[in-house]
Design a protein that fits this description.
Length: about 450
Amino acid sequence: MLDLTPTAIIDREALRINPCKTCQPVGALYAALGVHRCMPHSHGSQGCASYHRTFLSRHFKEPAIASTSSFTEGASVFGGGSNIKTSVKNIFDIYKPDIIAVHTTCLSETIGDDMNAYIQDMDIPEGKYVVHANTPSYVGSHINGYFNMMAGFIRYLSKKSGKPNGKAGIFPGFVNPGDMRELKRMAKAIGASITLFPDASQVMDAPMTGHYSMYPKGGTTIAEIENMGDCERVFALGELTSEEPANALLRKCGVAYTLLPLPIGIVNTDEFLMKLSRWAKNEVPYELEEERGQLIDVILDSHFYLSDRSVAVFGDPDMVLGLTSLVLEMGMIPKYVITGTPGDSFTRKAEELFKRYGRSDCKAKAAADLFELHQWIKNDGVDLLLGSSYGKQIAKAEDIPFVRAGFPILDRYVHPYFPTLGYTGALRFVEKITNALMDRQDEDSADEDLEVVM
Ligand code: SF4
């Protein structure tokens, strides 16, 4: 008989419950917001665009602009060709962007709209651009949408002139504006000349000026994306996020790339800085060495609270792998490691990390969901949860300390301004994790004191 008690683990192949990911266009929209004077455009119904914009605004606490093809029944039957042509004309007339980045949705993909043909057939004003990416949401996750949109920009815009520009391209992975600022700061400290693409800093963390600006100062410019074809090398950060656009640039312009994990924690940040400094032919400056030393110092200081404490890590694949590497460096046990994004290489990479640190008591799963994680935790608990806001219900139900990390974080403020990457990002997470565990210890000892008094 089928056991339906809460702790029974049912192996589900088709159904996902609380899936630990969102749809492709959310990622495509975020990638497009990292391009200067770009209007992201959702080729589908108004409901899709509203959802994608709201989702990003709730994480960043900033307006996420986007237009829509506003599909109705007619478009569903006859295709969205006339909608996109009218949309593009109106957007250039009214909102005056330099570029429109079109991403498709479930509906337009199901109809089979041929975006290449539609764009070739458009009257695009002189000096303006329209690019597109196919982002069917029933495949992959917002991470696929993010890298598909990056590859779309590259395919349409990047060119090789034959004259190297002395720059390195850096693809930051799906990270916050605070991380993008941190990457630029580290590159500047090393003296490396870079193009960061995309770059949502000064867009999704723009200051309050008293005036609404539809196109804030930040974002990679069209000229910079065109010029990426002349970069000497690309550092593609986030092995499961940045490989696709790096391959697109290699195929189109022959730019070689170095694929690296997101620089989260000591080992990954060391690797990124060493590779970048070797390329720039400069030493890593003392400023960064000092930060590294401070990070090691605080990990040593707090190891009484961290050592052998178990943690469940969940979220986007590269973020989860980076955080898993960090918690292993901290002496913790990443007992459960899951992502909602499909891909066997996630599990393989997580298992390599477990092996490197001699952990045979941890398990990893891709295309997993939070219902399953909750079942694992019910059967064998953990000391800490580390992941997106969607872990809140598990934390509450099982009374487990919870540190928010990754995407989305909907129920906290300010976090997109601070890095997770680099030594400073790791320092911040050592503080958050240690304090969450110390708070729990204080609560437990207060309960014991109460029992003694009673
Ligand atoms: S219909 Fe598809 S594209 Fe639109 S919001 Fe839903 S999953 Fe995303």
